[in-house]
Design brief:
5 strands, 5-stranded mixed β-sheet
């Protein structure tokens, strides 16, 4: 019988080339598929200095008040909730750039306020809301 000799100087080698190829392919894949978002920031420049007569003066707002008893007043004139938009449009025909200021009392029903707010928003009328000074 013959004895087979094993070579002891043989060592197992790991070929790193295929692994490096896979790593580079993954790196290229993630670079290509990454989404680059451009985030918008806040403009920190101050507004230009105001010169002239119309500086800081816009048309007066149309005041819509809703009191504790859900009575609606447009610029001091009592009106029905369903007719607020018509009354506001009548005032806006004189001053088309005027906005609506919605003054509400604490005890006013939210449904009435939301109905007015939605009507103004749906018709492109700028509206802001504030708590009535008399409600304190």
């Amino acid at each position: 019988m013959r004895k087979h000799r094993r070579k002891r100087d043989e060592s197992a080698e790991v070929n790193m080339t295929p692994m490096l190829d896979i790593v580079f392919i993954l790196l290229i894949f993630f670079i290509v598929t990454a989404t680059f978002l451009s985030e918008e920031g806040v403009d920190m420049r101050p507004p230009p200095d105001c010169t002239g007569e119309a500086c800081g003066r816009g048309p007066p707002p149309i005041v819509v008040q809703v009191d504790n008893e859900n009575q609606v007043f447009v610029n001091g004139t009592r009106t029905d909730v369903d007719r607020v938009l018509a009354a506001v449009n009548r005032f806006r025909s004189e001053e088309p750039e005027s906005a609506v200021l919605l003054e509400v009392y604490d005890e006013a029903e939210h449904g009435v306020i939301i109905q007015i707010w939605d009507e103004m928003g749906a018709n492109g009328v700028p509206v802001s809301i504030q708590r009535s000074r008399d409600a304190d």
